[in-house]
């Protein structure tokens, strides 16, 4: 990713330059997790997609870059980030400034084929707050994870899919939060390298799904067992998702 911009913002390239997004120069900045979440969503042209907690719109706009003709909506609680998401998405993305726990009435009347979310990773009852407000809002859990899952499930149309990326240690919390009408659960663990314990997971579930639970083999993001100046490359399937906008298939 490369950046240029004024003193407060940079305009950064994603997907090998296929997508450019404005984001704050300092504080929370979008990274690999949002792009991989988007790559894991098997949307098709014409479907309705909602992102909860969209930040500047990275995940949902990466998905839109791969799949044309989607109908996109997003929710973001921070007004400055929501404004950037509107700027980044233009006419393609409808952005609501709201808390996930208190969706606007208009959104509560809609159903979506896909709902995706990258909820805050850290339970602040067991971790230290960030001094940066935007970073804290992105990483510090104030709305419980169970609420994110419940809201996503409520907004799904029949047979629609919910998609989450989170820390591996929170996988039990994610699974416990799934309501009875979300099934066909699949989990893709993400590890930094071969032989490392996964530190992220992507979980997806289907509204009214009846398929068996599936735990997929861990995906190593980088090639090789150790980091070195000569070995920084992403694994081919990950590189294709990050730089070419390819789908990340479970």
Automatic annotation (TrEMBL):
GO terms for biological process: methylation. Keywords: Methyltransferase, S-adenosyl-L-methionine, Transferase. The keyword Iron does not apply. PROSITE patterns: N6_MTASE (PS00092). One of its GO terms (molecular function) is methyltransferase activity. It holds the Pfam family MTS. Residues 36-126 form the Methyltransferase small domain. Signal peptide: none annotated. SUPFAM superfamilies: S-adenosyl-L-methionine-dependent methyltransferases. This is Methyltransferase. It comes from Sulfitobacter alexandrii.
């Amino acid at each position: 990713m490369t950046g240029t911009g004024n003193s407060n913002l940079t305009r950064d390239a994603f997907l090998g330059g296929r997508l450019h997004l404005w984001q704050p120069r300092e504080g929370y900045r979008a990274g690999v997790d949002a792009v991989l979440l988007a790559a894991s969503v098997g949307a098709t042209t014409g479907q309705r997609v909602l992102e909860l907690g969209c930040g500047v719109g990275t995940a949902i706009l990466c998905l839109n870059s791969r799949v044309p003709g989607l109908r996109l909506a997003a929710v973001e609680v921070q007004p400055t980030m929501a404004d950037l998401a509107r700027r980044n998405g233009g006419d393609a993305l409808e952005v609501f400034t709201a808390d996930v726990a208190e969706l606007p009435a208009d959104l509560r009347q809609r159903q979506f084929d896909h709902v995706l979310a990258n909820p805050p990773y850290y339970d602040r009852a067991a971790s230290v707050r960030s001094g940066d407000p935007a970073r804290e809002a992105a990483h510090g859990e104030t709305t419980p994870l169970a609420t994110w899952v419940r809201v996503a499930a409520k907004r799904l149309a029949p047979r629609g899919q919910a998609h989450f990326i989170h820390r591996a240690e929170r996988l039990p919390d994610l699974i416990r939060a799934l309501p009875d009408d979300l099934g066909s659960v699949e989990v893709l663990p993400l590890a930094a390298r071969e032989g490392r314990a996964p530190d992220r997971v992507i979980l997806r579930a289907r509204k009214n799904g009846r398929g068996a639970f599936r735990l997929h083999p861990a995906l190593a993001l980088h090639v090789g067992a150790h980091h070195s100046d000569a070995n920084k490359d992403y694994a081919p399937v990950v590189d294709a998702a990050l730089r070419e906008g390819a789908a990340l298939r479970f």
